[in-house]
Sequence to fold (346 residues):
Amino acid sequence: MRVWRNISRGVHGVGYNLPPAKKGLVAFDLEGPLSPQDNAYELMGLMEDGYELFERLSRYDDILTLEEREDYEPGDTLYLILPFLILNEVGKREIEEVSKKAPFTPGAKETIQRLKERYKVVIISTSYVPHAHYIGNALGVEDIDIACTPYPFEENLKDKILSHEKETIEDYKKRILGIPIEDESALKGLLNEFYLKILPKLHLHKMFSDIKVMGGRRKVDALRSFVSRGGFEPLEVVCIGDSITDFRMLKYVKENGGLSIVFNGNEYAIPYAVAGVASMKLEAVIPLIERFFQGGILSVKESIKDTVPAEEIQYQWLEDYLSLDDVISVHKLFRRRLRGRAAQLG
Fold:
């Protein structure tokens, strides 16, 4: 295992002298880089067999993303789960209560604080508004600098669903749970039936049919908006992501001369980043960000190549790898340690 020389000084707070700050925008995904909790996963866990149901819906999300279904974006799982959240009366208050139990990635507060002293920091998250704002505010990021998914329900969800519609949703829940997650063909067939034929006919669908989840191309659009609003150029951008919802954003930054970092990423995100960081502490990204804004992308490459052995952090300049299998294995290990059961989700 190898790590950037002198990285421990930057990570553990001894510090080092830095040149004057240059203008830059740093955009973080939330779930993974900033907090290990998958909020939607935990919300589904409030109901019986909710984790198992979410895992199947998440796999369906992966399938639709990889086949590039029209008008579908990675992360639209947060749209898919809405009928089941309504069924179980999950409103804003419940989301906030689950959010309060969310831990922060070690070093997240220190990382955001340090970067905010020198650069513009924003969050672009698939999470529902109540969760994204709660975590973001706790880390020192204001609502105006957070792009996320609107949540259409406050309270009184019990009165928003008709009895026969409740029976329909409960029936499909049982049928979905009856399909092994490995049987992708059967899973896709049943879920296509539910979301394309059954759900649009239900009265409750009108309450959330226009919700757009902040994932995929919508994350790119949000990033472009932050870039424009702040008067930045695309090559003055760093983004940090870890999963399938981030791959288009990572790719966009990479192709426009910025620094895209995958932090404890999965196989859907790693191929689209410039640099990989596998670590239990988010502060590990700081030296790469500083090097980028002071010396450009080639400076980051040179720094990663100048390495010494270390166990707690691993860096990769991803273009150097003919195969990313070893990188994915390393990130998977750190991802599992940090995120637990949620690490398996796309």
